[in-house]
Amino acid sequence: MSFHEEPRQIRRLTVRTRLNTGRLRLVYVPSKLIVHGNATATASNIAASETLFRAGIACNLLSQILLCGWPLALYDLLKGSTSGTPRSCWIDCVIDPDSVAE
Fold first, then answer.
1. Per-residue pLDDT at 86
2. Which DSSP string do the residues of the chain spell out, in sequence order?
3. How would you class 18 by CB atoms within 10 Å of its CB: exposed for 0-12, middle for 13-18, buried for 19 or more?
4. Which of 1, 12, 3, 5 is nearest to 73 (CA)?
5. Is the pLDDT of residue 4 over 70?
6. Predicted TM-score of the model (pTM)
7. 65: how many CB neighbours lie within 10 A of its CB?
8. How far is residue 90's CA from residue 97's CA, in Å, rounded to a whole number?
9. Cα(45)–Cα(15) distance, integer angstroms
10. Angle, CA of 96, 97 and 100, to the nearest 5°
11. Average pLDDT over residues 61-85
């Protein structure tokens, strides 16, 4: 493995991890725990499967930590282009991170 392939593999692993944690925290956990229109049933589901609830929180935290790496990956990708582009991407990602996630 050369020096330039390692960051690419790290970015790929980061993206895959972020996608998998996103699926878990956005699709699976809410479908198993949340009962729409019934707060009592939702609370009892959370109490019954506390591990799943905590796993959802952990996945959310991990996903947010990995999201912090996106501006750095964009900077690394665009640093060879014009001088103002990487800086403006960094500023865009910090100000509006949802634009990067979508």
1. 56
2. --TTHHHHHHHHHHHHHHHHHHHIIIIIHHHHH--TT-HHHHHHHHHHTHHHHHHHHHHHHHHHHHHTHHHHHHHHHHTTS-THHHHHHHHHHHH-THHHH-
3. buried
4. 12
5. no
6. 0.60
7. 12
8. 10
9. 31
10. 110
11. 72
Residue ranges of domains in the chain: 1-67, 68-102
Residue 89's CB: how many other CB atoms inside 10 A?
18
Joined together, the tokens standing for residue 99 give 């634009």
The span from the CA of 78 to the CA of 51, in Å, is 41
Res 16 pLDDT > 60: yes
Question: Comparing C-alpha atoms, which of 3, 57, 70 is closest to residue 29?
Answer: 57
